[in-house]
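In response to reviewer comment 3 from the previous cycle, which asked for concrete evidence that the modeling workflow produces usable outputs, we include below a single protein chain processed end to end. The sequence was submitted unchanged, and the resulting structure tokens are shown without manual editing.
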Amino acid sequence: MSKTSVVQIQNLLKQFPVGGDFFTALKDINLELEKAEFTGLVGPSGSGKTTLLNIIGGLDSPTEGNVDVLGMNLGSASHNERAALRRTQMGFIFQSYNLLPVYSVFENVELPLILNKVEPQERKQLVTQAVEWVGISDKIDSRPAMLSGGECQRTAIARAIVHQPALILADEPTANLDAENSHHIMKIMVRLNKELSTSFIFATHDEKIMDYLRRIIHLDDGQIANDEQIDQPKFDE
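The workflow returned the following structure tokens.
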């Protein structure tokens, strides 16, 4: 794995038991992603993109093959080692936001810092900075029920980036948003990618996201059908 590689996957196979047989979700996956890439795993439902994203995030394990993420071999790493890698060096953005309803925006964004045992004064500074990044400083004391869908997703992004991780994994992050909010969200993430050199990997079939990507990996029936570099995305801040 080169010094600038964030993800390196070799000969990945992922199968799930179904009855007395196996369903092959991914096969013959060989892939390398460099630092600060803005990449999409693209394909129809059932193509394997979310499964691949979960394996990269250490949330699922390959049946066969080698997966190195941020210098760690996930196959040989323990459960605790994978959890520590996720907690300290990764951020996750989900379609359903996954915010805690009884917590304010501040408290939701602060959670990764508490888990990483950051001191209270530094937590306050980092949360305030992250919330400013995504443009919802005026909502910092609000709970999720008081927010729009776009504001909930901005909160989720702030939570994902508050500890300034090396890698952010986003699963259909604009699926519940209208076009205007989707573009706002993507512009925020492009800016974070450029200014913090954070690597982003999306799992999506949303055309609005694809217009921002600088690399598109097309998955079909569990295999990489095409790996496309985009020199000039349609929307590039």
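The CA atoms of residues 130 and 162 lie 5 Å apart. We consider this sufficient to address the reviewer's concern, and the full set will be provided in the supplementary archive.
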